[in-house]
Amino acid sequence: MPANYNGIWDIVDCKNFEGYMIALDIDMVTRKIANMLKPQKVIEQDGNFFTIKTLTTFRNYSCSFKIGEEFEEVTKGLDNRKCQTVVNWDNDKLACTQKGEKKDRGWTHWIEGDFLFLELQCEGQICKQTYRKTG
Ligand code: VL7
Known about the structure:
Elements: E1 7-15, H1 17-23, H2 28-36, E2 40-46, E3 49-55, E4 60-66, E5 71-74, E6 82-90, E7 93-99, E8 106-112, E9 115-122, E10 125-133
Antiparallel strand pairs: 1-2, 1-10, 2-3, 3-4, 5-6, 6-7, 7-8, 8-9, 9-10
This protein binds 1,3-dihydroxypropan-2-yl (9Z,12Z)-octadeca-9,12-dienoate.
1,3-dihydroxypropan-2-yl (9Z,12Z)-octadeca-9,12-dienoate binds near residues 39, 41 and 107.
Organism: Electrophorus voltai
Family: Belongs to the calycin superfamily. Fatty-acid binding protein (FABP) family.
Protein name: Cytosolic fatty-acid binding proteins domain-containing protein
């Protein structure tokens, strides 16, 4: 039985989002706005099928995938790039690689009790986020 990510998760901590956004070439005005946001993750998991919604007052982003199946991801409203993306199980962690223009790009999710952790990586910058389950 893999881990169960279903639920609503609210951000409680965020480190180096700025470095991650600079690595993605996000302009300063957008970074200033983005740094104020308190994202919520709404995750729907049905076996190996996932939808992860990242919701904010400024922009929303949604990504649906099946574990192990590569797909073309367009990071619309984020850095607007195309990636060849795949998400795999690494034990109970969700490990994503996003191949494209940016090197060493991807993210990892894992759960510890009521907390959901996320590390977003791009070209040597790692943003570490913590979410708490609220629903
Ligand atoms: C992570 C944003 C910065 C542009 C707007 C800020 C809007 C929210 O990769 C992500 O989640 C994964 C793992 O949970 C699933 O898709 C989205 C958001 C990072 C990068 C780019 C700033 C402009 C923030 C929509």
